[in-house]
Amino acid sequence: MGAPPLSPGRGAGAAGQRWWVLLAPLLPAMLLVRPAGALVEGLYCGTRDCYEVLGVSRSAGKAEIARAYRQLARRYHPDRYRPEPGDEGLGRTPQSAEEAFLLVATAYETLKDEETRKDYDYMLDHPEEYYSHYYHYYSRRLAPKVDVRVVILVSVCAISVFQFFSWWNSYNKAISYLATVPKYRIQATEIAKQQGLLKKAKEKGKNKKSKEEIRDEEENIIKNIIKSKIDIKGGYQKPQICDLLLFQIILAPFHLCSYIVWYCRWIYNFNIKGKEYGEEERLYIIRKSMKMSKSQFDSLEDHQKETFLKRELWIKENYEVYKQEQEEELKKKLANDPRWKRYRRWMKNEGPGRLTFVDD
């Protein structure tokens, strides 16, 4: 026996249900789609055609567009406007003349730039791409007027100049301080006497020098000797051009390639071939274990580095023992420090969060 035939009402309902299932996913897209209209309020010349505003065709060149703009700008300029017989629409009153002048200026700004004109012509030819036109219009209108690369370059140069003068100021302060330390000042004075520099400063020529000028000159001589004899490391070292931000950015690819080559050599020599560490490699491992920067580690005295090497601190177990010893030594120093004792006594009796009431 065959299946019972469907009634007309039941078949029509099933068919309508199937169409509804097919059309349901398309409803959001149908609601979002706007009616095709090339001229949109808020974009370019609004609902007016920029070519019609200037009275030129779409094939007009830049010279023709500029000539039409100058003529209309002279005609509708608010300060020079005089109504003419036959004026209709915009331009019949001073207020409407000002609106016409702004519209003419907008049309000229749209058509004089090749990229903006391409976007406008594309909008006229493809009115259905509504949201794309909005994006291109505002992305071009809100784009920065100055090239971002120029801004970044100027900022980096300004930071580099500030770095250089700041470092140089710190270096001069360090030299001035060392010139007041008796140990270095006496040594620098002896060197200046041996070289006869102080005698030259006191020599009297045609231009007699005052005592203050002689004192300043002697001070500069001592500072120059200290600069030449003492190698300051760390945050007060002599500034180097290659340490500035600008040169660091320029040399970044070179440093990156150098680091990759150095790392590959390290893996090949010590991990694969099993070579023994040299003095430079041992100091590097010790510095990394101590979590010190290169400038901080270089500022240490030579005898400290020799102690690190003698104790073989590049070996992890030895470094852990050394670290524990340093912590114990620090605890002993703090235990014998009277200021630390007062602080612990205050924390025990008063504490940072305890409320006290004082009776008058």
TrEMBL record:
<protein>
    <recommendedName>
        <fullName>DnaJ homolog subfamily C member 25</fullName>
    </recommendedName>
</protein>
<dbReference type="InterPro" id="IPR036869">
    <property type="entry name" value="J_dom_sf"/>
</dbReference>
<dbReference type="Pfam" id="PF00226">
    <property type="entry name" value="DnaJ"/>
</dbReference>
<feature type="transmembrane region" description="Helical">
    <location>
        <begin position="150"/>
        <end position="168"/>
    </location>
</feature>
<feature type="domain" description="J">
    <location>
        <begin position="49"/>
        <end position="124"/>
    </location>
</feature>
<dbReference type="GO" id="GO:0006457">
    <property type="term" value="P:protein folding"/>
</dbReference>
<dbReference type="GO" id="GO:0005789">
    <property type="term" value="C:endoplasmic reticulum membrane"/>
</dbReference>
<keyword id="KW-0143">Chaperone</keyword>
<keyword id="KW-0812">Transmembrane</keyword>
<keyword id="KW-0472">Membrane</keyword>
<dbReference type="InterPro" id="IPR001623">
    <property type="entry name" value="DnaJ_domain"/>
</dbReference>
<dbReference type="InterPro" id="IPR044632">
    <property type="entry name" value="DNAJC25-like"/>
</dbReference>
<keyword id="KW-1133">Transmembrane helix</keyword>
<comment type="similarity">
    <text>Belongs to the DNAJC25 family.</text>
</comment>
<feature type="transmembrane region" description="Helical">
    <location>
        <begin position="245"/>
        <end position="264"/>
    </location>
</feature>
